Automatic annotation (TrEMBL):
Annotated protein name in UniProt: Iron-siderophore ABC transporter substrate-binding protein
Signal peptide extent: 1-25
Gene3D superfamilies: Nitrogenase molybdenum iron protein domain (3.40.50.1980)
Entry's Gene Ontology cellular component terms: outer membrane-bounded periplasmic space
Record has Transport as a keyword: yes
Spans annotated as Disordered: 28-51
């Protein structure tokens, strides 16, 4: 999944098409307009119901004077979340990896069309087409789960409030994404119900598949010959699977993440260390990559792969849906994902 690799090297994202593929490898209230308290990155200042709202990010401050009406979303998940919170963006980042021919992620497009709303403009992001963003005359840019660079933030911030990530690029939790966006849109009370609805969908799927409970898994990616990376807690794909009742294999749970990522670089020569994995997950950009990876003897000797307890992901749209793992994408993904998981689990 070209998109899912982006989570593998989140903090090292370079805004080029190649880097996109590799990378897939507090609220405080104020009752005084003159309040000067400085919140922590990602925190907000408002009374929870009115504007202005001030949101701090790792790149700088966004002060939103009134309820936004023309919102542009960049990075992952923001378009879904804004839509679920009642705002149809006027512009969204084009998904050239897991999107349709027009650059829309299918669950997002379906949801916009169900609302009988106008589809937003799609914006080239690698590199970011700043002129296209400005041409839309936005009153807010949302990018809390992105790799936006400081110079881009500074340039856009001269024209429009920009809400970037609170900590490291590409490492904002879904909970924080929803909370930040809800605050920016002036609907903070809608954040928790939206997260609850997502959790209810996952809980219902887990209850419908008790055979998955306790199955020990690993989610890996082998982007180059001899390489093997393992996704760890914090990665949305791992969090979704544990939400469905599976458990990270002890050999994986004990690994230390590469700094700034939710993954550990293991190396295929160490594949024998994950022999306790009962169900192996991975993803590929295409059939050729899948064939090349599976043909490597050290990969083929992983016990879970050898006995067919194996869930390879080739569907890019599904791969992106479980990677962003938003309240909008998760229900859309589960119908297709669960049959793949249960088929692999049948061979455990």
């Amino acid at each position: 999944m070209g998109a899912p690799v982006r989570h593998l090297r989140r903090t090292a994202v370079v805004v080029t098409a190649t880097a996109l593929t590799l990378a897939l490898a507090a609220c405080s209230g104020s009752t005084d307009d003159d309040a000067t308290a400085t919140p922590e990155p990602g925190s907000t200042e408002s009374d929870g119901t009115t504007f202005p709202v001030t949101i701090e990010s790792a790149l700088g401050t966004a002060t939103i004077e009134e309820k936004p009406e023309r919102v542009v979303t960049l990075g992952w998940g923001a378009a879904d979340i804004a839509l679920d919170l009642g705002t149809v963006p006027v512009g969204v980042e084009a998904d050239t990896w897991g999107g349709d021919a027009d650059g829309y992620q299918p669950w997002f497009r379906e949801a916009v069309e169900e609302r009988d709303a106008e589809l937003p403009e799609t914006i080239a992001a690698y590199p970011l087409d700043i002129d296209a963003v400005v041409a839309l005359e936005p009153d807010l840019v949302l990018a809390p789960q992105s790799g936006m660079e400081q110079d881009v933030f500074d340039q856009l911030s001269e024209l429009v409030p920009v809400v970037a990530y609170p900590g490291e690029p590409w490492q904002t939790t879904l909970e924080d994404q929803v909370t930040i966006i809800a605050q920016a849109l002036g609907v903070p009370e809608q954040a928790q119900p939206l997260l609850d609805a997502r959790q209810e969908a996952i809980d219902a799927a887990a209850a419908a598949h008790p055979e998955l409970a306790g199955v020990q898994f690993a989610y890996v990616y082998a982007s180059e010959p001899g390489s093997l990376s393992v996704y760890l807690p914090g990665d949305p794909r791992v969090e979704l699977l544990t939400g469905l009742g599976l458990e990270l294999a002890p050999s994986v749970a004990d690994l230390e993440a590469t700094p700034g990522t939710f993954a550990a670089e293991l190396g295929l020569e160490n594949a024998d260390t994950i022999s306790d994995v009962e169900l192996l997950f991975t993803w590929f950009n295409d059939d050729a990559e899948k064939a090349a990876t599976e043909a490597q003897p050290l990969f083929a000797q992983i016990p879970a792969f050898a006995k067919g307890a194996y869930v390879p992901m080739l569907d890019r749209q599904l791969g992106m849906a479980v990677s962003v793992a938003t309240p909008l994408s998760v229900p859309w993904a589960l119908d297709a994902y669960l049959p793949l998981i249960t088929a692999g689990a049948a061979n455990v």
